[in-house]
Design a protein that fits this description.
The protein is an alpha/beta fold. It has one domain: TIM Barrel. 44% of the residues lie in helices and 16% in strands. The protein has an eight-stranded parallel beta barrel with strand order 1-2-3-4-5-6-7-8, surrounded by seven helices. Strand 2, helix 2 and strand 3 form a beta-alpha-beta unit. The radius of gyration is 17 Å and the shape is globular. Bound molecules: phosphoenolpyruvate. The site of phosphoenolpyruvate has 13 residues, from strand 8.
């Protein structure tokens, strides 16, 4: 049975004080929820990761980093390595978010290096990809998603896939209030699973969790999550509110 995941990407939001308050509230609220085969992940900013990691030690909530550098160490001012994340008990990293691709020039080739570095350090990866609006309008969305996945992940052997979660995030639906319809999400997720099945054995494609991301809210989560190939969500804006995030967790 595939694991369901609800992951909150806090982006560049929440100070140290605000992080502590939000984590505290989430921990409290999540105690009332019966989680069946479901993982709940939060991704605060780098400076607040260690605090969040400590605070959630005895909670079901897991902590992820929003990014990391591909090198082990060295002259890379402002960057953080996989080993540093492991050192503060952070075992998950989000890679390939569209904001990293768009504003920080992260390419598929660079992401393949980051994927390798994360796996070398035994980090789990939530790997994001998705088409921009023009690709969707021109009918190129399947091709774009296919190349993003192939270029960054298809060099891996089957075993590595137990550390990978995929996150389909159509860029036109991120932070816009515009959501892919549940059928659009299902169509793409089924395509992705088929793609993975063609490259690997079907036990890899059947086991990999594929999350949907893009303006998921408590009001639309249940319908999106009800689709056969949607195994949860990567949540941006709604992850910053306990009420909204918990609403989404309950929807799953
Ligand atoms: C995201 O940034 O991954 C995301 C899905 O954002 P939002 O939920 O705000 O659209």
């Amino acid at each position: 049975m595939r694991t369901k995941i609800v992951a909150g990407n806090w982006k560049m939001n929440k100070t140290y004080k605000e992080t502590k308050a939000l984590v505290k509230e989430l921990k409290k609220s999540i105690k009332d929820v019966a989680l069946v085969n479901t993982r709940v992940v939060i991704a605060p900013t780098f400076v607040n990761l260690q605090k969040a990691s400590k605070m959630t030690k005895k909670s079901v909530i897991e902590v992820a980093s929003q990014n990391m550098h591909q090198a082990d160490s060295g002259a890379f001012t402002g960057e953080i390595s996989a080993e540093m994340l492991k050192g503060i008990y952070v075992d998950i990293v989000i890679l390939g978010h569209s904001e990293r691709r768009e504003y920080f020039g992260e390419t598929d080739e660079l992401l393949a290096l980051k994927v390798d570095a994360a796996l070398k350090n035994n980090l789990e990866i939530i790997f994001c990809f998705g088409e921009v609006l023009e690709d969707r309008k021109s009918g190129n969305h399947f091709k774009v998603v296919e190349s993003q996945i192939k270029n960054a992940l298809f060099h891996l052997d089957s075993d590595a896939w137990s550390h990978i979660t995929l996150a389909y995030e159509p860029v036109w639906a991120i932070g816009t209030g515009e959501t892919a319809s549940p059928d659009q999400a299902q169509e793409m997720h089924a395509f992705i699973r088929e793609l993975v099945a063609e490259r690997y054995l079907s036990d890899v494609s059947e086991e990999v969790s594929i999350l949907y991301g893009g303006s998921v809210k408590p009001g639309n989560a249940e319908e999106i999550f009800s689709k056969a190939d949607v195994d949860g969500g990567l949540i941006g804006g709604a992850a910053l509110s306990v009420k909204d995030f918990m609403g989404i967790v309950k929807a799953i």
